[in-house]
Specification:
globular; Immunoglobulin-like; 8% helix; binds CU-O-CU linkage; mainly beta; 33 strands; binds copper (II) ion; 4 domains; 41% strand
Length: 488
Amino acid sequence: MRRWLLGGLGLLLLLCGGGVAVVTWLVTRSATDTVGKVAFDRPLQISPLAASTVDADGRRVFDLTAQPGDSDLGHGAATRTWGYNGAYLGPTLRAKRGERVAVNVHNRLNEPTTVHWHGMHLPAKVDGGPHHPIPPGSDYQAAWTVDQPAATLWYHPHPSETTERQVYRGLAGLFIVDEPGVEPAGLPREYGVDDIPVVVQDKGFDGGQLSMSDRFLSDVGVLGDEILVNGTPGPYLDVRTALVRLRLLNASTARVYDFAMSDGRPLTMIGSDGGLLAAPYPTQHVRLSVGERAEVVVAMRPGERVELRSQPTGLGRFQGGRDAFDVLQLRAAAELRPGELPRQLADIPRLDPRQAARTRTFTFAGREINDGRMDMDRVDAVVVKDTTEVWNVANGHGTPHSFHIHDVQFQVLSVDGGAPPPELGGWKDTLFLEPRRRFSVIARFADYADPTTAYMFHCHVLRHEDEGMMGQFVVVEKEGDRPRLAHG
Ligand code: C2O
Ligand code: CU
Ligand code: CU
């Protein structure tokens, strides 16, 4: 009897001990730190500039084919991925303000997709949202006139409920808008030389394949423990200029980064989502939530090596907030071409809240915006063309979100009632909606009235978006006009 009791006790202790070990393992595994552990042994891949032709109508025409392929992402050469015109990611599209562009999209995947032009001001019909799926095997054309300041925009799929998986597999690319004559002289601007695309993504692997299993207790979806830049694991960049411009894009599905240099030198921020800042802003770190961009300039000295890192963000452990990563090593040549940044970068006319036609409030909590999930048949906001609106956006709980509006670039009026920090002083289309913070933003809906087609606003944490944390707005010609949605 006694022996039985002891045996039972022992077994119980063993089980408890095992439980504690498992929980300890899960919790430690839920923080990742790759600082000092990355080999930096592969040259940074630079996504090629997309080829284009000018058609008989004078339009610049691009082709994008969404297709499966095999990639070497550091776990063997046969990782199954998706890309545009290649196995992983897509080429960088580039056009000038005022240019008419057309993009022919070919879906060679075995499921529906769409291509959305994130940050682009364009008609709702060609916005590439979930209302307009491109069936497998078919083709689609989006055409519009580029009409906005020089900026680093991007494109990615936006189908109903499968966006996280499609982006994670590799579908994403940059769209750079130029505005010759307006962009100041002196900015590094030689693509791939001193003007570098830096598309940052986190990945998890299971054997040689991408893994989409969620981190323990994650409320944001997949958080990978390895970083790819432009699809390159452990990348380094050979630098030949004293100033190097990095066009940072957070193209991850859930992770927030806080970028800083390994030796603490400043990053000079020159641009946000929708264009250049008014003036360069030197800062110790640049935080980017999902979908956000920042253009930064790093000053280099001859012969040195320094790393771009991502440091802990302050978010919770299960939201990736304790993680730290080595991201990209910059290797300066023995001699560097000198450069100097201009003092002024852009004119940013301030939108005036006193001129706003409407003020709306959107509260993000659970997976809902104002207690509702995405409904393609419900219009959440009817906006009158050529008016300005103030949107108060609040995060009502402890989960991080990333607030994005289609069609427009907005300005941040306030953060928790106070003045916004300098990094939020320029044009934005995506905003880190930190837990329990409130923001007020202002935008002008200048044109493209179309009562039949909705634009979206949503959380850009792609798991949340897929789960319906998204709403719709329609731009109408004049006050009193009603939307008449006509999709499907
Ligand atoms: Cu980058 Cu609605 O998306
Ligand atoms: Cu978008
Ligand atoms: Cu969210």
